[in-house]
Structure formats: C-alpha cells, structure tokens
C-alpha cells in the first residue's frame, strides 16, 4: 500500500474520530448526557423562536411547542449516533464496548420516559417555558453551578 493511500486512510480515521467526539453526548453517563441534551435542545428552540419571530417556517426539532426531547434523542441515537459508534467499535473492539453499552442504556432511559404515563414523564425539574407564547413542555433540566458545568466539560 502506498504512503498516499495509507495517509488517506489515516485522514479518514481521524475525521471519523472527530465526528465521534462531536456526537459523543449520548455516550456519556446519563447525568452528563441529560445536561448536554438540555443545552442542545435549548439551542434548537431558540432558533425556532427566532424563526417564529421572523414568521419563517420553523425547522424540524426547533419548535418548543411541539418538542419531544425523548423522541428526538431516541431518533438521534438510533439513526445517527449508534451506527457511527458501532462502526467505530468494530474498529477498536473491545476498547469502546462500554461506550456502546452506555449509549444503549441512555436510549433505553429515553424510551422508558416516552413510554411512561404522563404523570411520570412530567416529573421533571423544570418545564420548557422560555418563550412567553409557548405552552410548557416537560423537559429534563438540571440547574447547576458554573463549577459543575466546567467540570463536565473536561
């Protein structure tokens, strides 16, 4: 195999590794996963709020009035994150098996919340009511100090 081909494969592996890192939130322990999910969803919802303000069509997943965090996370895990990490695990087996296990546990947690009666699902810390015109949608949100957030980013 030529150096150019090996170099090309090396670049592809590194690009894949960066993509895995970018999509690693659902592979983290549940508490960390939930905090980053909350941040991501809030970013989507703010975009939807701006689109609503400008009377534009609201992008998928960006309407806080219709949001189902659980459905979004399950689809994100099943169709994007799991296939990516499964491929990465094939390359690095068994070193990343625990990552796949955590990913599947988090997907199962969201699935259980989706399947739970409304009274259980609504038992979150705060509701999604940032927009004055929106009706509250249950959302898992943990308020933390900046020190906690800093430690999660390390």
UniProtKB/TrEMBL annotation:
GO terms for molecular function: 3',5'-cyclic-nucleotide phosphodiesterase activity; metal ion binding. It comes from the Eukaryota. Pfam families: PDEase_I. The keyword Thylakoid does not apply. Residues 1-117 form the PDEase domain. InterPro entries: PDEase (IPR023088), PDEase_catalytic_dom (IPR002073), PDEase_catalytic_dom_sf (IPR036971). PROSITE patterns: PDEASE_I_2 (PS51845). Zn(2+) binds at residue 22. GO terms for biological process: signal transduction. Residues 129-146 have a biased composition (Low complexity). Transmembrane segments: none annotated. This is PDEase domain-containing protein. The keyword Ribonucleoprotein does not apply. Keywords: Hydrolase, Metal-binding. Residues 121-154 are annotated as: Disordered. PANTHER family: CYCLIC NUCLEOTIDE PHOSPHODIESTERASE (PTHR11347).
């Amino acid at each position: 195999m030529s150096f150019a081909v090996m170099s090309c494969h090396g670049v592809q592996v590194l690009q894949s590794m960066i993509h895995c890192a970018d999509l690693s939130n659902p592979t983290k322990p549940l508490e960390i996963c939930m905090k980053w999910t909350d941040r991501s969803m809030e970013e989507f919802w703010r975009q939807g709020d701006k689109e609503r303000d400008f009377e534009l069509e609201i992008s998928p997943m960006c309407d806080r009035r219709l949001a189902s965090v659980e459905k979004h996370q399950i689809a994100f895990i099943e169709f994007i994150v799991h296939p990516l990490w499964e491929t990465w695990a094939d390359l690095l087996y068994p070193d990343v098996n625990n990552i796949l296990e955590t990913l599947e546990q988090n997907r199962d947690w969201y699935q259980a919340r989706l399947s739970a009666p409304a009274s259980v699902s609504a038992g979150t810390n705060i509701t999604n009511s940032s927009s004055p015109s929106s009706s509250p949608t249950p959302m898992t949100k943990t308020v933390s100090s900046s020190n906690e957030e800093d430690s999660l980013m390390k």
